[in-house]
User: Which sequence fits this backbone?
């Protein structure tokens, strides 16, 4: 997944996550963070709707709900990578497993 970087030393991703606590105290920062999250959800949702429309996906829940879950999982797993608890490969494997479960599509079928 595009959001999962190389590891604990990823400076840009670390900076983004260190910014989050400010969102709890600063309404402008919270609004910017919400806008970013909504853009991410819109991208995933669009992919899910398109894949469903083309017959590639059999979605198990509404596209927006699944999209929001992808974003939340991506963020949570990124923290695991930054903390050194999981490798990038482990995270990608977990995200692919979730994608298969909720779309009915196995990317390995196309590779």
Assistant:
């Amino acid at each position: 997944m595009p959001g999962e970087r190389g590891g604990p030393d990823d400076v840009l991703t670390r900076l983004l996550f260190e910014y989050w606590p400010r969102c709890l105290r600063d309404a402008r920062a919270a609004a910017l963070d919400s806008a970013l999250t909504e853009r991410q959800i819109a991208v995933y949702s669009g992919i899910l709707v398109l894949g469903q429309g083309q017959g590639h996906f059999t979605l198990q829940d509404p596209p927006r709900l699944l999209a929001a879950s992808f974003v939340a999982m991506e963020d949570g797993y990124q923290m695991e990578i930054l903390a050194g608890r999981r490798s990038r490969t482990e995270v990608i494997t977990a995200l692919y497993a979730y994608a298969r479960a909720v779309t009915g599509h196995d990317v390995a079928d196309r590779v």
